C-alpha cells in the first residue's frame, strides 16, 4: 500500500491480535491491537473508528456471531469490517456479508493476502479470496447429501407412539404382533399403522420401512428413544 491504513485488530485471543498488529505495523500501517470478547468488540471499534477493522471469530457458523459487525456498521458505517476466521461454511460467509462485513479473511492467510483484503475493504470493494468463494458456491450448488435432514422432518411428523409403530413395521411385525407388543387392541394398532403411512406419504408398510431406512429415521428413532 502506498499509504498506511488506520487499522484495528480485535480478537479475544490477545496473542493473535498483537501478532497480526505487529506484522501490519512493520508494513507501514497504523494499527491498534485489542483483545476483547465478541460482546465488547463493537464498542471498542465504535469508540476508535478506524478505517478498517479486522474482527476475529472462531465460530463463523454460530447464530448471532456477527451481531458486532452489524452494530459497528450501524453506528460507524464508514468503518470497513473484515472478519478473520477459520474456513467458513457458505452460510457463514453469507451471514458475515449480511451483517455488513466488507470481507472474510482466513486465519491461515499470508500477511500479503491480509493486506490485499485491507486495500479492497478500504476502497469499498468486497474482500474475499476467490478460492473461498468458489468453495462456497460449489457447496451451495452441489450440497453434500444430508439424509438426516429429511429424517428429522419425518421424525417431527410422528408422535412417539407412531414412531414405535414404524420401528415395529420396519422390523417386519404384523398388526397382531404390534398390538401385543404395545399392549393395544389390533384395531388400534391398525389405525396407528394407517396414520404412519399417511404421514409418510407412502402406500404400503414396505415403502414405509424403506423410506425410514433411507432417510436415517430409524437411527434417529433409536437415539430419541434411548
From TrEMBL:
Write out the entry's keywords from A to Z: DNA-binding, Transcription, Transcription regulation
Cited PROSITE patterns: HTH_LUXR_2, RESPONSE_REGULATORY
Cross-referenced InterPro entries: CheY-like_superfamily, Sig_transdc_resp-reg_C-effctor, Sig_transdc_resp-reg_receiver, Tscrpt_reg_LuxR_C
Q: Where is the Response regulatory domain?
A: 6-122
- The answer on whether this UniProt entry bears the keyword Methyltransferase reads no
Q: Which domain of life is it from?
A: Bacteria
- Where does the record place the HTH luxR-type domain? 151-216
Q: Which GO terms describe its molecular function?
A: DNA binding
Q: This chain belongs to which protein, by name?
A: DNA-binding NarL/FixJ family response regulator
Biological source species: Streptomyces griseoviridis
